């Protein structure tokens, strides 16, 4: 799949090797990926006559019959490895269990593993594929909004280590991603809201048209799962356009920088202080609420700095709030912000690189935010959010099931 071509130069006392690894992958829309008439998936496995599928247990319980019917119909042997991975089990142990299944199956070197589920399943199984024989191909079928518009668009895979999210991982593109948004029909509302925070992210700093769509249709898209659950054809069309634009924008921004060598990343908006905030409450925040609180504060900061008008600031906060996303939290304190700044500086090579909107749809990076300025912005932010629904609290903010 990927080939490394390198050139060697040498002197008497040294060799220098320089090469580039080709990265190539496809994201392909399929409406009803397990409908027997859609051969996209079967075509990928026909050469092997069989498939090893790592799948989220909940997704298996909902779609297992359709999946078995599909593989039967196409005369392909299916081996199913159900996994139930919570954030706390996004671990090396789970990774090892999956690797054990590869061995038991007797995976042939070029045979792609099929991975079906949300970001947790695809991250852990993807990392197992990255490591297995140093490089095993895989095909992803994301089944959550986060998976569809974010995790499976990127080439990053990982497990957590100790208290650190995604501390061990790899850049390992899947051969193919099959995008089937009809999975959203069964996704619980709190999970859809969680994914919508990433759409707010990409829109506020990367694409004002997406922002306008979220402004106009956000709550309806949430309620109807982007038109896949009792939604009108019109809403479904809006959802399709919006998610397509989000994927396109993310690829535009990230494809030139797949290995994240440039650390000024637009799509890191909301991911500056939230990594520390997310795991602070006794039961962690949903990722979407944690990044939203970070984005909301960054939006207030952008207005303070003169990069957003007051009206635009309130528009951004309004769109977030109407989706039920948190604007603030008692866990967001000046001390936490100082700690989180220290932590992100290490990840970002000594510079803050805080993405903020300038204006909506465009991005600017701030490196000179002092602890005092942050504390002031926070104070102002806490006053502001009082005017919004739930006084800035989010709906279903915590992942209660995890701890
Ligand atoms: N690799 C990346 O670039 C990247 C990007 C974003 C997020 N992530 C990672 O993704 C993880 C979060 O992923 P997620 O939000 O998809 O969570 P998840 O994989 O835990 O799925 C959320 C829940 O929804 C259930 N579910 C999945 N699909 C369903 C469906 N169609 N119908 C009903 N229920 C369904 C799952 O069983 C689970 O309980 C985090 O660990 C995060 O670090 C990675
Ligand atoms: Zn994120």
UniProtKB/TrEMBL annotation:
3-dehydroquinate synthase C-terminal domain sequence ranges: 195-335
InterPro entries, per database record: Dehydroquinate_synthase, DHQS/DOIS_N, DHQS_C, EEVS-like
GO molecular function: 3-dehydroquinate synthase activity; metal ion binding; nucleotide binding
Family annotation (Gene3D superfamilies): 3.40.50.1970, Dehydroquinate synthase-like - alpha domain
Catalytic activities: D-sedoheptulose 7-phosphate = (R)-demethyl-4-deoxygadusol + phosphate + H2O + H(+); D-sedoheptulose 7-phosphate = 2-epi-5-epi-valiolone + phosphate
EC number: 4.2.3.152, 4.2.3.154
Keywords: Lyase, Metal-binding, NAD, Nucleotide-binding
Sequence intervals crossing the membrane: none
Highest taxon of the lineage: Bacteria
Ranges for domain 3-dehydroquinate synthase N-terminal: 83-193
Cofactor: NAD(+)
Pfam family name, one: DHQ_synthase
Gene Ontology terms: biological process: antibiotic biosynthetic process
Family label: Belongs to the sugar phosphate cyclases superfamily. DDGS family.
Function description: Catalyzes the conversion of sedoheptulose 7-phosphate to demethyl-4-deoxygadusol (DDG). Involved in the synthesis of the mycosporine-like amino acid shinorine, a natural sunscreen compound that protects the cell against UV radiation.
Name this polypeptide is given: 2-epi-5-epi-valiolone synthase
Species of provenance: Williamsia herbipolensis
């Amino acid at each position: 799949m990927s080939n490394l071509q390198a050139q060697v130069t040498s002197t008497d006392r040294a060799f220098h090797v320089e090469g580039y690894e080709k990265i190539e992958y496809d994201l392909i829309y399929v409406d009803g990926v397990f409908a027997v008439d859609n051969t996209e998936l079967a075509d990928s496995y026909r050469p092997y006559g069989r498939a090893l599928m790592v799948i989220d247990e909940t997704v298996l319980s909902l779609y297992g019959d359709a999946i078995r019917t599909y593989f039967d119909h196409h005369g392909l042997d299916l081996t199913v490895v159900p996994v139930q991975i919570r954030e706390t089990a996004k671990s090396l142990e789970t990774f090892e269990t999956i690797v054990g299944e590869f061995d038991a199956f007797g995976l042939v070197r070029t045979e792609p593993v099929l991975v079906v589920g949300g970001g947790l399943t695809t991250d852990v199984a993807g990392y197992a594929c990255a490591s297995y024989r140093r490089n095993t191909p895989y095909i992803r079928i994301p089944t959550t909004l986060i998976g569809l518009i974010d995790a499976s668009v990127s080439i990053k895979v990982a497990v957590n280590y100790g208290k650190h999210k995604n501390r061990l991982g790899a850049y390992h593109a899947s051969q193919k991603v099959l995008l089937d948004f009809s999975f959203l029909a069964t996704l619980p509302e709190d999970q859809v809201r969680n994914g919508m925070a990433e759409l707010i992210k990409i829109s506020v700093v990367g694409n004002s048209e997406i922002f306008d769509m979220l402004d106009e249709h956000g709550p309806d898209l949430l309620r109807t799962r982007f038109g896949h659950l009792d939604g009108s054809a019109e809403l479904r069309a809006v959802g399709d356009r919006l998610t397509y634009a989000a994927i396109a924008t993310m690829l535009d921004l990230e494809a030139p920088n797949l290995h994240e060598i440039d650390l000024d990343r637009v799509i890191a908006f909301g991911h500056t202080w939230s990594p520390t905030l997310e795991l602070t409450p006794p039961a962690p925040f949903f990722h979407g609420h944690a990044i939203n609180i970070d984005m909301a504060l960054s939006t207030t900061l952008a207005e303070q700095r003169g990069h957003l008008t007051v009206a635009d600031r309130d528009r951004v906060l309004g769109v977030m709030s109407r989706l039920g996303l948190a604007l603030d939290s008692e866990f967001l304190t000046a001390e936490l912000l100082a700690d989180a700044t220290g932590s992100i500086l290490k990840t970002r090579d000594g510079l803050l690189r805080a993405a903020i909107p300038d204006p909506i749809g465009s991005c600017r990076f701030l490196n000179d935010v002092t602890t005092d300025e942050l504390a002031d912005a926070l104070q102002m932010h806490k006053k502001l959010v009082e005017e919004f629904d739930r006084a800035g609290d989010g709906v279903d903010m915590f992942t209660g099931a995890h701890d």
